[in-house]
Amino acid sequence: MIAMPDLNNPPGGPHLIVTAKTANKVQFFDAATLAKTGEIDMPASTHEMILSPDGKKVFASVYGGGIFGKNTAPDRRIGVIDLASKSLERLIDVGANVAPHGVMMDDGGTLWATGELGNALLAIDPDSEEVERIDLGGSPHWLAVSHASGKVFASLKATDSVAVVDRDQRKAAGADPYPALGRRPRARAGR
Questions:
Q1: In the chain, what are the domain boundaries?
Q2: Architecture of domain 15-177
Q3: Beta strands of 35-139 (E only): which ranges?
Q4: Nearest in space to 112 (alpha carbons), one of 147, 161, 71, 83
Q5: In this predicted model, what pLDDT tens digit does every residue of 173-186 receive, in sequence order?
Q6: Tens digit of each residue's pLDDT (9 = 90 or more) over 33-54
Q7: CA trace torsion 41, 42, 46, 51 (10° rounding)
Q8: Measured between alpha carbons, how far is 189 from 143 in angstroms, rounded to an integer?
Q9: In this structure, are residues 82 and 28 in contact, taking their beta carbons and an 8 Å threshold?
Q10: φ, ψ (nearest 5 deg) of residue 22
Q11: What's this model's pTM, rounded to 2 decimal places?
């Protein structure tokens, strides 16, 4: 069996990139010394980030002004950060104030994002900025891409379940309830 590298968690690298959510900033640190090497002002609170497959860009969800259940100023953008210049290159408009939250990349180059207030999962072409919306209901929050199964999983905060989406057909394929643990787990890759 050949192990496929996890595009969402590549090993090593010279940078540590952090979102300072309440300060509306993304900060860069040297991974070896932890010295701060840069900072970007973001248009609103940035919640989650994912590295592009080529390691040259970071995609950052611009959630808006709040937390789950109390987002009074939801946003509609995904920031594209250029790592070489440590700058905000552009913003991808996802089409509605859905409060983008979780972000992941698949092995085909699609950027996936949850649209929490839009009750949707978004499949985004980062080059053309075309956005395909998959309605899920239940306030999708976290997500995981399983390259082995061809599925995308999104935790649904409002229904205590995990939505299962067929990655290639871009259709919901069901939902699995959370076990009764007293706490809402995050979606995990692999089934």
A1: 15-177
A2: 7 Propeller (2.130)
A3: 36-41, 46-51, 57-64, 74-82, 87-93, 100-105, 111-115, 120-124, 131-135
A4: 147
A5: 887 776 655 555 55
A6: 999 999 999 999 888 999 998 8
A7: -90
A8: 8
A9: no
A10: -75, -20
A11: 0.84
